[in-house]
């Protein structure tokens, strides 16, 4: 399995990802996308938008769909009225549990601390670790030996439980050795921590001007439900898509860009009739899973996992996660790429009435000095009337919610490879290659003159200029051509175009394929069309 350190190094070396504010020591949980990274992430978002919205055919019934449907888009503000988050439940319920270490003064998310039970010298303790999956045992063993005052040669005297587990499974924290502590029992009891970032709007710095950075993009769609209906000709069923930044004050951001405090979402809120909502839930589960495989993720490393009853949000009628076996996770474990949630009518009803769980009970609201509930809904009518049947109902919602950053990271993890390719002398040499789907690759093609003379650079620059009108391409005339190939392989460029001596004679060039290493000659006049055809054949199906 790929070592995550290799990918992180490549991302820094080739300009995919940088630590935010790195020259000042960085800021944990925040990442900057470099020149190649911003192109990759933009391509992922564009592929999602094209496949879900732009190229959607509302007159056709996609395979697996109960009926034809329409798709539109929105771009809502990051800061919204505070009442939005009160009625949605985020203000009261959007939290994780954290624990503090009294020894190290560090804070951890309760369910993310992992450890393992070990016994020695008649004492049994739970040793936690912050190490990556491939070095968890080594770190835990080192800390256990230190705690029991034993040497490395005595490691065989440690009796370990079979596997690592979450700290949340431990009921007695007095037996826990915290990650950076030398004694037991330094962790506090878990307590709630709200994940929303608070800010202030206008000149008021008190509670009168308090607002929040959005923790998700979905609520902007819900509060605009009527605006979309009134300004377009869409009708149930239809979907509203949005791509945008969200913010969560994660207690312990980790695993590169997998868990960050600032991230980008690609979300759809699909509104449908309650009687068809289960069918639409099944449709979106399968459609979204297929999208990832068509863009290059290995189906053996993907899974669609239905949530157990005790995992479901209080409003959910059903949720499934699309998960990927990221290399930084322990063998056999998966990380969430996307959630597809059957939200029922919870969201629209909450913004109408201010109820947190319309299926069970109204929220026991805090009241103001006039006896009015502080968390009341908007009072607006967010129901839908079917013009043909005259039926009025509150639509159910299916929500496919994907992380643009997690998808980008998954594509990078899947693409990383090491193999051998011939150098300029024909000798096989090892290379690092990113096998990104050409559709999302940051640079689609690189153009090289074989040498910097005999008119080759002039021809190469003309080809580069023609390609640049349609694609992000790269021109390079420095170093031996074999070295240039390797630079582009590492950057994930799928095609390299070389102008050589024969090009000046018969007006053809060589196109080299990154993955197969096959080279074919193509007429210079056909290069743009050839590259376009190759890219377009790499995974678009409007009815995925």
Question: Would you write up a description of this structure?
Answer:
- It is a single chain.
- Helices cover 26% and strands 26% of the residues.
- It contains 14 helices and 28 strands.
- The strands form eight sheets. It has a seven-stranded mixed sheet with strand order 3-14-15-21-18-17-16. Strands 6, 7, 8, 9 and 10 form a five-stranded mixed sheet that branches. A five-stranded mixed sheet has the order 25-24-26-27-28, with helices on both faces.
Query: Which value, in Å, is the CA radius of gyration?
Result: 27 Å
Q: What's the arrangement of strands in the largest beta sheet?
A: 3-14-15-21-18-17-16
Judging from the principal axes of the Cα atoms, what is the shape? globular
User: How would a crystallographer describe the biggest sheet?
Assistant: 7 strands, mixed
Number of E-state strands: 28
Provide the β-strand percentage band.
Answer: 25-35%
- Average pLDDT: 89
Helix % is 25-40%
Q: How far apart are the termini?
A: 30 Å
Q: Name the poorly predicted regions.
A: 357-365, 540-544
Tally of separate helices: 14
Q: Please identify the structural class as seen in this structure.
A: alpha+beta
Put the structure in a nutshell.
The protein is built from 14 helices and 28 strands. The protein has 544 residues and is an alpha+beta fold.
Provide tags for this entry.
544 residues, alpha+beta, 28 strands, globular, single chain
